[in-house]
Amino acid sequence: MSESSVTKKTIADGFKSLMEKKSFEKITISDITDTCGLNRQTFYYHFQDKYDLLNWIFYNEAITPFKQELSFDNWSLRLLEMLSTIKNNSRFYTNALRTSYSNEFKDYMHRSSTKVFSDVIDSIAVDKPVREDDKRFIAEFFSYGITGSVIAWIENGMKDDPETIVSHIENLVEDCKKLAIKRYSDQ
After folding, report:
1. CATH architecture, domain defined by 50-185
2. How many CB atoms lie within 10 A of CB 122?
3. Is 165:83 a contact under the CB 8 Å cutoff?
4. pLDDT tens digits, one per residue of 88-114
């Protein structure tokens, strides 16, 4: 891991520990740098502000592991890993959604997952390419569904375990797949 990555991780860990005790709005850059034993200049070298840091944490902890080597065959395992990460850091993610930044947080998750679904559609639609407008609609449809489900799960206290959430989504995807096969085989 590069020195820059180590520093970013240190800053992120300090920020996450602060969010266990304080609301996002009450955390200052000084709080973060004091917790990490770094100076403000170091923080600003790596992040524009605490919103940028929040995005970095979410992207690196939840989205990147989800996207790594993602395929139609392993998407549910990747989703389970993402939800487990969120549940293991439940106070941080719950606090993040309670911020004035929550709409941006949700939009960020939606944009990221739409890109993931678009890539998945490209990878499985090799034999019969999907039109761009159809691909965009399908990717956004699933992105809104999964993003909304994950956000509701977080906002409602993550009462269900990640396995239950993934099982529900797997059942829906399997049913959609059966309908798609029937639709295209009847044509």
Report:
1. Orthogonal Bundle (1.10)
2. 13
3. yes
4. 999 998 888 887 666 777 887 788 778
